[in-house]
Amino acid sequence: MFQGLEQTGGLWGVIPRRLASMPFIITDPCIETKDTACVDVCPVDCIHPRKDEPEFAQATMLYIHPEECIDCGACVPACPVAAIYDSIDATPSNQNDLIEANAVYRNGDPALMAQAEEIVKAHLAAQPALMAIPAAERQAAPASH
């Protein structure tokens, strides 16, 4: 599934090099919710798309740009649906494909934005009952949802 693998240890044992430094990951409770409380508290505007960006209307969820994030953690408590995890290892296994979506999304790059959105759509297709679960409850839903 991932390109450019290297040994890094941790939960996965083998993860993509570009993901090794992912400080925070937005997961499926954000899908179709896109509450921007996390955007409002981010001191470096690393969460995209923002409401004032043209991509906001089309995006399925918000994404954290891993190279812009300063690892302050302000976004985690601000998220009303608990969609943000503070590391790859903390992200539930049923959300692993969304780690890749966060890693590839680059606001302003149509190809990478489309690639991230395709990953999210595949995540939804693989879990058809997902959207029937309220966003605030998706975090605690079993891996088979």
How far is it from the N-terminal to the C-terminal residue, by CA?
A: 21 Å
Q: Strand order, biggest sheet? A: 1-2
Globally, the shape reads globular
At CATH's second level, what is the architecture? 2-Layer Sandwich
Percent helix: 25-40%
CATH class category label: Alpha Beta
What integer value in Å does the Rg equal?
A: 14 Å
Question: How many runs of DSSP E, i.e. beta strands?
Answer: 6
Structural class: alpha+beta
- CATH fold name: Alpha-Beta Plaits
Number of domains: 1
Q: Could you tell me the strand content as a percent range?
A: 5-15%
Which parts are unreliable, with pLDDT below 50 for 5 consecutive residues or more? 1-15
Mean pLDDT across all residues, rounded? Answer: 82
Structure description:
There is one protein chain. Helix 3 packs antiparallel against helix 4 (110-126). This protein has helices at residues 37-41, 75-78, 96-104, 110-126, 135-138; strands spanning 5-9, 13-16, 25-26, 47-48, 63-64, 84-85. With 145 residues, the protein is an alpha+beta fold. The two termini are 21 Å apart. It is globular. The chain has one domain (21-128): 2-Layer Sandwich (Alpha-Beta Plaits). The longest helix has 17 residues, at 110-126.
